[in-house]
Amino acid sequence: MAWQSLQADYDGGEWVSKSLAFTGKELSLNFATSAGGSIRVELQDSEGTALPGFALADCREVIGNEIDRRVRWRSGSDVSALAGHPVRIRMRMKDADLYSFRFEG
User: Fold this and answer.
1) What three-state secondary structure class fits 55?
2) Number of helices and strands in the chain (H, E)
3) How far apart are CA 72 and CA 53, in angstroms?
4) Among candidates 94, 51, 89, which has minimal Cα distance to 71?
5) Strand pairing partners for 50?
6) How much is the pTM?
7) What does the angle CA 12 – CA 27 – CA 88 come to, to the nearest 5 degrees?
8) Residue 60 is part of a domain; what is its CATH number?
9) Beta partners for 16?
10) Are 2 and 96 within 8 A, CB to CB?
11) What is the pLDDT of residues 31-70, one digit of tens each?
């Protein structure tokens, strides 16, 4: 399955992945936002409950236009404790395009 990008207009939108298991230490985004746009990321358990420390409210706003930006929450960017466990990714976007994401490190 291929996709071009996720887009959200100024009114905003959300996307939630299916459960997936990953390897790596950090989540990286390839994205573009307007000056008034943003992306926030939440990591959830397989039932859709935000994982402690990885809720939308804990995520630092992602703003700009970059091909490799690490997502940071209040506790930092390290997600390695969740590696190998099923998680869902929730993205809340406003006036933004998301081209890709990956776990790395």
Assistant:
1) coil
2) 0, 5
3) 10
4) 89
5) 44
6) 0.93
7) 65
8) 2.60.290
9) 90
10) no
11) 999 999 999 999 999 999 999 999 999 999 999 999 999 9
Specify the amino acid at residue 37: G
pLDDT attached to residue 4: 75
Q: DSSP code of 64?
A: S
Q: Tell me if 55 is assigned to some domain.
A: yes
Q: Which residue has the tokens 């506790």?
A: 75
Domain, as residue range, for 32: 9-104
**Count of domains for the chain:** 1
Q: Distance between CA atoms of 33 and 28, rounded to whole angstroms?
A: 15
CA dihedral 26, 41, 14, 64 (to 10 degrees): -90
Cα 51 to Cα 16, 56, 58, 59, 94: the distances in Å are 14, 10, 10, 12, 22
**What is the C-alpha to C-alpha distance for residues 12 and 9, in angstroms, rounded to an integer?**
5
Task: Give me the pLDDT at residue 3, please.
Answer: 61
Does 3 map to a domain? Answer: no
Q: In whole angstroms, how far apart are CA 85 and each of 18, 55, 94?
A: 13, 17, 29
Structural tokens at position 44: 């959830």
Report which residue type is found at 92.
R
